[in-house]
Design a protein that fits this description.
Elements lengths: L1 E7 L15 H36 L4 E3 L22 H13 L3 E4 L12 H21 L4 E5 L7 H14 L2 H4 L2 E4 L7 H11 L3 E4 H6 L6 H10 L9 E4 L17 H12 L5 E5 L4 H14 L3 E3 L2 E3 L1
Parallel strand pairs: 1-2, 1-8, 2-3, 3-4, 4-5, 5-6, 6-7, 7-8
Antiparallel strand pairs: 1-10, 9-10
GO biological process, one term: response to UV
Keywords: DNA damage, DNA excision, DNA repair, Endonuclease, Hydrolase, Nuclease
InterPro entries: UvdE, Xyl_isomerase-like_sf
């Protein structure tokens, strides 16, 4: 079996960022004409930086990567009237071509403000705009990729939160529905909760193993893994998972700078039993540096890797 290891958003090694942003306050202060000109400059800078990052990933044989959700600032703000898509069509297409040519699986993971099960209509509306924006970018890039979401809040209890998520999900554009994958979280919705919703909506589940340790289900993970794999059966992409190590025993929920190799090896040996290819996102504060350090540690322990792809 094969495991592509990846990292999140901005490599530590490169002095570039594809997440330059602009606040609405700044946009208002400049006014539409100057504000749009500044937006244009920032967007072109972000596109250029992302192209460099993709090339960096290619040169380092990284085949799994999370794109920043901050590529296009103010894209979903209702008071900003600007063409975020058609005028940049060639740049999106160029990104898509690079991703295909470099053979990198990419995805998006919108931030914590994307909460489609919120009890507040304005939050839900903003979240739906954000999802539509991500899918529009995917379409322009012409790339098969996924949007990772959490279930969201638990106001009035977990069952109510799950029902709100499903209700809003079913109201989304089918194009958006087809892109969403659902991840267990570290405090409220554990693996069995998420599996239940994924089965009802017929969408894939992303296992975050660290979140599972923080917020475990009653059923063992060995019993749950086949059910998680089953949610991906209709997809053209391998199952996706997240892995991180705790910052410390006291600060267990937060991510460490790096990955604890013994902990990681135990996890991949668990996955090995199921003989299913997986794409595994390394969520560590040192990002690509943590990934490369883990690769060196795996080689030291006699694992076979080609670049950042692990063979078991």
């Amino acid at each position: 079996m094969k495991i592509n290891l990846g990292y999140v958003a901005l490599p530590m090694t490169l002095d570039v960022t594809s997440s330059h942003t602009m606040t609405y306050t700044r946009y208002q202060m400049l006014g539409p004409e100057l504000g749009n000109a500044q937006l244009h400059k920032i967007i072109l800078s972000n596109f250029g930086a992302l192209e460099k990052i993709l090339y960096y990933n290619y040169k380092n044989k990284i085949h799994f990567y999370r794109l920043t959700s901050n590529l296009i600032p103010l894209a979903t703000h209702p008071e900003v009237h600007y063409d975020f898509y058609e005028q940049y069509k060639e740049r999106y297409q160029r990104l898509g071509k690079l991703i295909r040519d470099y053979q990198i699986r990419v995805d998006f993971h919108p931030d914590q403000y994307c909460v489609i099960n919120s009890i507040h209509n304005d939050v839900v509306e903003a979240s739906v705009r954000l999802l539509n924006h991500h899918v529009k970018m995917m379409e322009l890039m012409g790339i098969e990729m996924k949007l990772v979401l959490h279930m969201g809040g638990g106001t009035y209890g977990k069952r109510a939160g799950m029902n709100r998520f499903m209700k809003v999900f079913r109201s989304l554009d089918p194009k958006v529905q087809s892109k969403i994958v659902l991840e267990n979280d570290d405090k409220l919705y554990h693996v069995e909760d998420v599996l239940e919703v994924c089965r009802m909506l017929e969408i894939p589940m992303v296992l975050d193993y660290h979140h599972h340790l923080c917020n475990p289900s009653e059923t063992s993970i060995t019993m749950l893994l086949p059910k998680i794999y089953e949610t991906w059966k209709k997809e053209n992409l391998p199952p996706k998972m997240h892995f991180s190590s705790p910052a410390s025993r006291r600060d267990f929920r937060n991510h460490h700078d790096y990955i604890e190799p013994g902990h990681f090896i135990n996890f991949i040996e668990l996955l090995k039993q199921y003989e299913t290819d997986v794409d595994l996102m390394i969520e560590a504060k040192k990002k690509d540096e943590a990934l490369f350090r883990l690769v060196r540690q795996l080689r030291f322990n006699d694992y076979i890797l080609e670049g950042t792809t692990l063979f078991l």
